[in-house]
Specification:
Strand content: under 5%
Largest sheet: none
Radius of gyration: 20 Å
Number of domains: 2
Structural class: mainly alpha
Order of helices and strands: HHHH
Low-confidence stretches: none
Number of strands: 0
Length: 86
């Protein structure tokens, strides 16, 4: 549980810094008359949580293969149960 909280905190901090740096750069180029920085961040990174989640799941498979093996075994068992009931 604690490792999940740490991962969330680190991910939030990194995301906040990237958002800040990008929006600051856009404001430096286009000015602050309109929230171009916020708009650009929202348009460019609206699907980033899905990408980050996929990367973390992949890394979890590399770093903790036992977890993935148990997940694969559970999926295989479900598939076999469906095939036998059909």
């Amino acid at each position: 549980m604690l490792d999940q909280l740490i991962a969330i905190a680190v991910g939030g901090a990194v995301g906040a810094l990237l958002r800040f740096w990008l929006s600051t750069g856009v404001y430096a180029l286009l000015g602050r008359g309109f929230p171009y920085g916020t708009l650009s961040v929202n348009v460019l990174f609206f699907d980033e949580p899905a990408k980050v989640s996929a990367i973390l799941e992949h890394l979890a498979g590399i770093l903790a293969p036992d977890h993935i093996v148990s997940w694969q075994a559970r999926v295989n068992k479900e598939v076999q149960e469906r095939e036998t009931s059909a």
